[in-house]
Write a structure and sequence with these properties.
By secondary structure, the chain is mainly β. It has one domain. It is built from no helices and ten strands.
Amino acid sequence: MTLAINGTYHQHIIPTNNEFPKICDHLVGLRNHSLFHLSASQHTLWYDTVCQLDISSEKEDSYHFGADFLAEEHINICPERNEKTGYLLGTALHVPSKRTCLNLFEANNLSASPIARAWLPYFLPLGFHGHFMAA
């Protein structure tokens, strides 16, 4: 939603199936250029794709984990001045092996695949959502 000072508003509709929309925490209440969310490209029961929507151009960049993965909410880690140069960090459950992988993406290039991935020898409970905060 875009809320104007004069009381008018504009509602932006994301054309894809999506959940858990996120922006950089320090930009809450300010104009945002990137919206990160999950999408389902092949399944109707779970999300298998992490996405970045450029709000101005409405172009979307995404990474599809594959039919055997259940992707969870990814957290954006972005510098205070530029939301497009940060990272996205999150987990995905590989259903056949019952193992979770932790994935690190460049926020401005999700389709290039994770730049780092760490496999756990077990699965994390689904719904394990996290946030970063200053100590």
